[in-house]
Amino acid sequence: MFSIDELRFASKFPFSATSRQVLKLNGFELNRVPAQVLKKAVLLIVFAQKPHKKAEYEKFFSERQIGSSDLLLTDVQAFPVAKILLSAMNQPEFFDRFADLFARQTFFYLSLESNKETLLGLANEMNSKAHPSSKQGFFAQVALTDFLEANFREDFMKLVNQQLDSGTIFLNRNDFCRFLSELSRERVASSLPVSLENVPKNFVDVSRQLKEQLAFRKRQEFDFKSLGSVDQDAFPPCMAKIYSELLAGQNVNHPGRFNLATFLVAIGMPTDQIVDAFKGAPNFDEKVTRYQVERIAGHGKAKYSPSSCAKMREYELCVANCPVTHPLQFYRNQKQGAKTADAQSASE
Ligand code: SF4
C-alpha cells in the first residue's frame, strides 16, 4: 500500500500518475463513492468558482494537507468525482476555474517543497521531461516543445523572455514552479469534460443541484442594480473595445457580440439602449437583435452571463491584463471605486 508521503503527494497533485495509481490500487469505483468524497468534490467545485484573496487560497490548500491517510485518500478520490460533476454541469467556464484552482494549488505546494526530486518528478508525472540544469545559475532545464505546452499568461514567462539554448529552456526554481503550475492547468483543463457513461444517477442529481446553486449565487453576486446607472467609463477594456467597434459600424464576430450583449444585460443597460448599440453593425436586424437580447435577459433574470477572462482570452477578445478573472468583476471594482471616491469628496 501507499505511504503517507505518497498519499500526500497524490492529494497535492491529483492529476499526477501517482494519484491515478492510488485510485487504481485502492479499488476506486464510481458506484461505491463514500458520501464524504462526494461532499469534498462539491466543496472543491464551489471553492473553485469564486476568486479568493491569496490568504484564503493558502488557508484552503494548507488545511487540505492536515490529516490521516483516510482523509488524504478522500482528497485524491474527490478529484475525479469533481470532474464528473463538472462534466455533467457542462459549463466550460467552470472547467477553467477548476483548472485555475489546481494551477494555484500546484504552485503553492511546489513553492514550499524542499525536495528537488519532487519538482522534477512531478514534471515527469505530467509527461514532461525535465532535468537538473546543466547550466550554472539555473534550477532545471526542459525541452522547448514541453515548455510550449504550458500556456503562459504572464509576459515574463513567455518564450521571448526565456533562456533558450539549442532547443532547451533553462529555468530558475521559481519559474520552474510556474511552468509546472501552468502545465497542471493545461492538463486539468484539457481532461474536461470526462465521459459520463455509466455515471451513477446520484451524481447527475448532485450536479444539477450544484449548477442551480452556483447560478443563483452568480445572479446575486452580479446584481449590479445597486451600483447605480450604467457607466461606460467603468467598462473593462475588452468590452469597451467591442462596444466602440459596434458603434463605429465594424463587423464584430459572434463571441464578441454575444459577450457584449450579456455584459450589457448584466450591468443593467435597458434593452432599447443595447439594441441601439447594435444598430451600426452590418446586417443589423432590429427584430432579431431585440429577440436575442430579451432572451439573454431572460425577462429580468439574466439567463446567460459573459465569459470569464480565461474564456475571453481563448476567443481572442481579451485586450489587457487586468487584475481580475471576470470582466464583470472589473466593472464592479471600477464602479465601487468611483462610489467610494464620490462619498469621500462629499464628506470633505
Ligand atoms: S483581463 Fe479580463 S477584463 Fe481585462 S480585458 Fe481581458 S478579458 Fe477583459
UniProtKB/TrEMBL annotation:
GO cellular component entries: primosome complex
Tagged with keyword Ligase: no
Textual note on the cofactor: Binds 1 [4Fe-4S] cluster.
Swiss-Prot/TrEMBL cofactor(s): [4Fe-4S] cluster
Residues bound to [4Fe-4S] cluster: C238, C309, C318, C322
GO molecular function annotation: 4 iron, 4 sulfur cluster binding; DNA-directed RNA polymerase activity; metal ion binding
Residues annotated as domain DNA primase large subunit C-terminal: 229-326
GO biological process: DNA replication initiation; DNA replication, synthesis of primer
Pfam families reported in the protein's UniProt record: DNA_primase_lrg
UniProtKB keywords: 4Fe-4S, DNA replication, Iron, Iron-sulfur, Metal-binding, Primosome
Subunit structure: Heterodimer of a small subunit (PriS) and a large subunit (PriL).
Job of this protein: Regulatory subunit of DNA primase, an RNA polymerase that catalyzes the synthesis of short RNA molecules used as primers for DNA polymerase during DNA replication. Stabilizes and modulates the activity of the small subunit, increasing the rate of DNA synthesis, and conferring RNA synthesis capability. The DNA polymerase activity may enable DNA primase to also catalyze primer extension after primer synthesis. May also play a role in DNA repair.
Protein family per UniProt: Belongs to the eukaryotic-type primase large subunit family.
Name assigned to this protein: DNA primase large subunit PriL
Organism listed in the record: Candidatus Iainarchaeum sp
Taxonomic classification: Archaea, Candidatus Iainarchaeota, Candidatus Iainarchaeia, Candidatus Iainarchaeales, Candidatus Iainarchaeaceae
Gene behind this protein: priL
